[in-house]
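Sequence in, structure out. Go.
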Amino acid sequence: MIPASHGPARPCLHGAAGRWLAPALLALLAAQTPVHAAAPPSSGASAASHPHGAHPAPAKAKKKEAATAKARRKHKAAPVVRDDDAPDSVVYGRREDVLAFAAQVAEDRGLDRAWVERQLAGARYQPSVAKAIMPGAPGMAKNWAAYRARFIEPRRLAAGVQWWQAHAQALDEAQARYGVPPEIVAGIVGVETFYGRMTGNYRVLDALATLAFDFPSGRSDRSAFYRSELRAFLVWCALEGRDADGVRGSFAGAIGWPQFMPSSLLRYAVDFDHDGHVDLAGGGDDVIGSVAGYLAAFGWQRGLPITFAALPPLDDAARAQLLAPDIVPSFSAAQMVALGVELPDAARAYAGPLALVELRNGDAPPSYLAGTSNFYVVTRYNWSSYYAMAVVDLAAALRREMAFAPAARTPAP
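Output:
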């Protein structure tokens, strides 16, 4: 799910924005064997297979052997995916591993065991989830310019300005409480789900059960992670008085406008409108408070710059030394300059640590920037420098658009 991932897949958020140039990245916009191979076809007919024990004529035999070999090759290349109505995958509520999981969740979290079992009994295996969680095709070059263009475009900007205007007061209140500017909150929501247009239409229960109990082979096994997320999802449903089968989200189980995974929803979601519930599906105050609160929890510093312009050193060894820590701020401005980085005066005067961030542009030369600790915080939402820079650039574009937009109007009651 990961767009130019720097580090492991994010543990808190797994939204569609976490995939590199893949449909799920815009379709916001980051999992033991749902694929079963049928028995291979017979290697050939025996004498008893033909009338009177006779073998086919040589020409026919060669033709049949060729057809058999072709069928065998075709079968090997395209393993069969279980249908949704396969009895061993659909009836999760009667599987021993699922019942054991239900008992453990009920005991650990003080939930009614019968209720947990009823929720899990409604889960259905989804082959499309198992396919979507697989890595993208190898060999696709990372391209920052193409990635950026998907987000900094007129329709998304117009939607962002409209949303900002409608929620200006809550965005200002979130900045006062958490220190996170409105444009950064708006940038994250815009990149994640296009302001609620792409939140995912999978039943979260199905997605998490599929990845928890039938994680596909062919990539590193993350079933333990998804069992933990399924556990958190059931706890959240119990706290909110919801039936688990009624919640929709991404193929990986991310929920709402900010695409919080269930564990993040439990830890970081904020009832910002003080109505006794956390609503991440409606695009209102709770979304704003939750996104700002999440960034603050990961160390956002009020008033701190996010990035500076930077030109990398010409010396390959110096550039490799600067890029070795990846996006973790590790060098002072003076150390960067000593290694050959060209920085503007504002960056040279900056007292905190910096990271040299490289954004590749396919066959064209890479782009570079110096990232502060606030840039690193944005990558904690989705562990990718490409994602973080898309948020930063969308935020800046929204701030410019808001300067020329009509004054915000209070919606009619």
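Check: The CA atoms of residues 185 and 291 lie 6 Å apart. Residues 58-77 form the longest helix (20 residues).
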